[in-house]
Write a structure and sequence with these properties.
Distance between the termini: 32 Å
Number of helices: 10
Helix content: 10-25%
Number of domains: 2
Radius of gyration: 24 Å
CATH architecture of the largest domain: 3-Layer(aba) Sandwich
CATH class of the largest domain: Alpha Beta
Strand content: 15-25%
Structural class: alpha/beta
CATH superfamily of the largest domain: Peptidase S8/S53 domain
Largest sheet: 7 strands, parallel
Number of strands: 18
Length: about 450
């Protein structure tokens, strides 16, 4: 897989032996040399559920300045759903400082604040805009308004998000539930997207997307049926931009936890029922897992990309049992070579190679306006949009696992079903074409 950039190496100074000897000789016998200050690291502290004011405890524990002169405190967590809670905070601390914090009886656990990042996108094809087409509706969906790039969006046709007849193409209407995209941000000024609101938990100063990944993901879910550009799986669905990754495409576990907590706390008021996480890490974090649990307990289906390593290695948060883990398939309905796999933890598949979608309207590392990308990052939003349409149709009900059971029941068996992924290729057609029920799968599948 192609890397998008190189990380510059730091130049170091090599001290010569003679200079070292002179320095040593200059030390006055018996004098004490100043000790090097202990290096500070990033940590996440979980407080016990009995703590009533996590912010107050966090401020007390984080007294003093960080190594950059700013506050040592980064995030405070105080989320509760149906009796389950996640209380705590993230901060910078030395080993001695964190040991003192561990000793506080209000503290339940401490873990390092590791990095979470994007699966690196696979190089896609060059963009060529097909000719424009128009049509009128007949049964289900809405009139296709002629978005000129639709003919290049093979994934929408493959999952049943476009229907054709003698009257022309039809596409789904907007889902009546909201979705959240936890990513590098979304270009709210893109003419083919409509962002309902923004929340920024990254190190970047704003929620806008200066990288490109989050805008591409958002377009696969929601790109508008407006006669320009591309089309989304569920065009026009209310979409919330929750920025948890910085402009380089990486962030901290605490940023992701803060974003998931925001989703859990706002799920009911904003009717957010699906969250897309096209990101990952090989490190299993108990606190990230708890944040995923809270989101699902709030009624949100957490859809996550399985990763682009091409192995059975677990990728988190997709590997958590509460999440819906998504692998990528090719135009030939086979598992993409880069996609992680394994039916023990990967749930379902969706198109993930040469996927055409929106990009920011300014130059970014991934391009601008529209472009093709490949990866499980692109597969996950097809499932996110499908879940939103399934909930709107009434076919999907209940918990996140209930939603997965329905999506799996209606998925189409393809190569790798039952071995590379538990279910087959996600199918959305019956959710928006007024079908009273979807066709049952032609192969046996286990209960989720």
């Amino acid at each position: 897989m192609r890397r998008l950039g190189k990380i510059p190496l730091r130049n170091g100074l090599v001290a010569c032996a003679a200079l070292s000897a002179l320095t040593a000789a200059a030390v006055v016998p018996g004098s004490a040399q100043a000790a090097e200050p202990a290096p500070a690291q990033r940590w996440i502290v979980q407080l016990k559920d009995t703590v009533t004011d996590p912010g107050k405890v966090a401020v007390e524990h984080a007294k003093g300045q960080a190594s950059d002169g700013g506050s040592r405190l980064r995030h405070v967590f105080d989320a509760a759903v149906d009796g389950a809670a996640l209380k705590g905070y993230a901060l910078e601390a030395t080993a001695d400082q964190i040991e003192a914090i561990r000793a506080d009886p209000q503290v339940a656990s401490v873990e390092p604040d590791h990095t979470v990042s994007l699966p690196e996108p696979v190089a896609g094809s060059s963009l060529q805009a097909p000719r424009q087409r128009t049509g009128q509706p007949d049964a289900g969906g809405v009139a296709y308004k002629g978005d000129p790039l639709l003919a290049g969006q093979w994934g929408l046709f493959r999952i049943g998000a476009v229907a054709g007849s003698e009257h022309g193409f039809r596409v789904p209407a907007a889902a009546r539930v909201g979705v959240a995209v936890l990513d590098t941000g979304v270009d709210a000024g893109h003419p083919d997207l409509l962002v309902a609101g923004n929340a920024n938990f990254s190190t970047s100063p704003g929620a806008n997307d200066l990288h490109g990944h989050g805008t591409h993901v958002a377009g696969i879910i929601q790109a508008l049926n407006n006669g320009i550009g591309a089309e989304g799986t569920a065009p026009g669905t209310r979409l919330w931009n929750v920025k948890v990754l910085g402009d380089s495409g990486s962030g901290l576990f605490s940023d992701l936890i803060a974003g998931l907590n925001w989703v859990a706390q706002n799920a009911k008021a904003k009717n957010i029922r699906v969250a897309n996480l096209s990101l990952g890490t090989s490190v299993d974090s108990p606190l990230v897992h708890q944040a995923v649990r809270l989101a699902t307990q709030a009624g949100v289906a957490v859809v996550a990309s399985a990763g682009n390593a091409g192995t059975t290695a677990l990728n988190y948060p997709a590997a958590y049992p509460e999440a819906i883990s998504v692998a990528a398939t090719t135009v030939f309905d086979q598992r993409a070579p880069f996609s992680n796999y394994g039916a023990s933890w990967v749930d379902i598949a969706a198109p993930g190679t040469d996927i055409l979608s929106t990009l920011p309207t300014r130059a970014t590392p991934l391009g601008e306006d529209y472009g093709f990308l490949s990866g499980t990052s692109m597969a996950a939003p097809f499932v996110t949009g499908s879940a939103a349409l399934c909930l709107t149709s009434g076919h999907c009900k209940g918990s996140a696992r209930d939603i997965l059971r329905t999506l799996g029941r209606d998925a189409r068996p393809v190569a790798g079903t039952g071995s590379d992924y538990r279910y087959g290729l996600v199918q959305v057609g019956c959710y928006w074409q007024h079908a009273p029920q979807c066709s049952p799968r032609s192969v046996e599948h286990d209960a989720a």
